[in-house]
């Protein structure tokens, strides 16, 4: 796993930034870390800004997004996910649909402004 995860508590939400190389293991690990930090600190609205090199296959994306709702069970997280690589949007939208259909409140975006608008609209 080759990634770095930083976060900043912004009051109304928490901003996570992940950087490194994308892989199935990296994706599982950073989402697990986002969950663990959020649970420990009582965060419920999170913005995840992804700066990962490479891309999961559609099959890997489907696999991870099937697993995430079970991992995230136990705290009511509202997640806005921004991948800075715009070419990843279609695959991320597949992941959003899979996770959403399994009970997660998550939405993917291609820019931070729209992500924050959605994340905070019911704050």
CATH first level: which class?
A: Alpha Beta
Secondary-structure element series: EEHEHEHEH
Count of β-strands:
5
Strand order of the largest sheet: 1-2-3-4-5
Largest sheet: 5 strands, mixed
The CATH topology label is Transcription Regulator spoIIAA
Give the count of helical stretches: 4
Q: If you compute it from the alpha carbons, what radius of gyration comes out, rounded to the nearest whole angstrom? A: 13 Å
SS-based class: alpha/beta
Named CATH architecture = 2-Layer Sandwich
Strand proportion: 25-35%
Parts with pLDDT < 50 across at least 5 consecutive residues = none
Quaternary structure state of the chains depicted: single chain
- Mean pLDDT across the residues is 88
Give the CATH H-level superfamily: STAS domain
The end-to-end distance, rounded to whole angstroms, is 34 Å
Count of structural domains: 1
The residue fraction in helices comes out at 40-55%
Overall outline: globular
Report on this model:
Helix content is 45%, strand content 28%. It is globular, with a radius of gyration of 13 Å. The mean pLDDT is 88. It has one domain (3-120): Transcription Regulator spoIIAA (2-Layer Sandwich). Helix 1 (24-41) runs parallel beside helix 2 (58-72) and helix 2 runs parallel beside helix 3 (89-101). It starts with a strand and ends with a helix. By secondary structure, the protein is α/β, with parallel strands linked by helices. It has four helices and five strands. Strands 1-2-3-4-5 form a five-stranded mixed sheet, with helices on both faces.
Which helices and strands, and how do they pair?
Layout: E1 3-9, E2 14-21, H1 24-41, E3 45-53, H2 58-72, E4 78-83, H3 89-101, E5 105-109, H4 112-120
Parallel strand pairs: 2-3, 3-4, 4-5
Antiparallel strand pairs: 1-2
Helix pairs in contact: 1-2, 2-3
